[in-house]
Design brief:
Distance between the termini: 64 Å
Radius of gyration: 36 Å
Strand content: 5-15%
Number of helices: 2
Number of strands: 2
């Protein structure tokens, strides 16, 4: 990034202000990046744990596979998915609060004996599946936010802060050189005036 500036005190003050803003903000952004990185790892672990749980539940389902042909899958449906928005390191993510099922009435006498267990198993599988989808959605949002935050850290740390510092040094050197030249020219002028005065006195 090329920092645009002019060789004057106004430009120097403006750059110094911009530099201080970025230097103050950098630790906060780094802290946010670290928190998001931890949350991304935690979320990945949560998804893995849910996938293991789902696999375990599906194994139970496989043991009853021959019986499922008698089961009416329309008995259970998701009535409502309650979610809330929660902020993690300043990033709003959806969190599954509750899951409400609707179970249709069925005859205890005409339905298979294990229908109640089947309903519970189906509810369990559905709940895990929905939780996995929410966790994936949350992970996607967190990973995007972490990526953007990392880019900002790199922009501040590797581009903008060094760029502003370099520009400030250049302006300061220019102003110092200008001041030195001004002093030197004033000295020469004083010497010339002194010589002229001496000559006039001698005349």
């Amino acid at each position: 990034m090329t920092v645009k500036f002019q060789y004057n005190k106004t430009s120097l003050q403006a750059l110094d202000k911009q530099l201080k803003v970025r230097e103050r903000a950098l630790p906060t952004i780094k802290s946010k990046e670290s928190a998001l990185r931890m949350e991304v790892t935690r979320n990945k672990d949560e998804i893995n744990a849910l996938n293991i749980q789902l696999a375990t539940e599906l194994q139970r389902y496989e043991k009853m596979i021959s019986l499922w042909s008698d089961f009416d899958p329309n008995l259970v449906s998701v009535k409502d998915v309650g979610l809330v928005k929660m902020k993690i390191a300043g990033v709003a993510v959806p969190v599954l609060k509750q899951l409400e099922f609707e179970v249709k009435q069925y005859s205890l006498f005409n339905s298979p004996q294990w229908t109640t267990d089947g309903i519970e198993l189906l509810k369990g599988l559905t709940q895990i599946g929905i939780r996995i989808e929410f966790a994936k959605m949350k992970l996607e949002i967190l990973e995007y936010a972490r990526k953007k935050t990392t880019q900002k850290v790199n922009l501040f740390e590797k581009v903008q802060i060094p760029g502003y510092k370099d520009a400030i040094i250049k302006i300061k050197r220019y102003l110092e050189d200008e001041q030195s030249l001004s002093k030197a020219s004033q000295k020469i002028m004083r010497n010339n005036l002194e010589k002229r005065r001496i000559k006039e006195e001698e005349a």
